[in-house]
């Protein structure tokens, strides 16, 4: 069975470990900006961008979780 490029990309794009790592990186960058006593306007804009990126990754993680197959039922 041949895997299409789209399927291969989706598998990489939806990798939970990669998404969690990406979310962690955005959070660390955001924390560094928010820790500054006097953030610049550029810092504020970057903080907004990072918040949006974190949210996008979190939404993607939630979507992947919803689409995952449920665990088998054990009676």
Helical/strand content category: mainly alpha
**Averaged pLDDT:** 83
The largest sheet, given as strand count, sense and whether it forms a barrel, is: none
Q: What percent of the residues sit in helical stretches (DSSP H or I)?
A: over 70%
Measured by DSSP, the beta-strand proportion falls in under 5%
- Integer count of domains: 1
Terminal CA distance:
35 Å
Task: Give the assembly state of these chains.
Answer: single chain
Shape field: elongated
How many beta-strand segments? 0
List the uncertain runs.
none
**Element order: H for helix, E for strand:** HHH
Number of helices: 3
Global Rg: 17 Å
Brief characterization of the structure:
By secondary structure, the protein is mostly helical.
Can you describe this structure?
The chain has one domain. It has helices at residues 5-13, 16-34, 41-67. It is 73% helix and 0% strand. α2 runs antiparallel to α3. The protein has 75 residues and is mostly helical.
List keywords for this structure.
75 residues; mainly alpha; 73% helix; elongated
Task: Walk me through the topology.
Layout: H1 5-13, H2 16-34, H3 41-67
Helix pairs in contact: 2-3
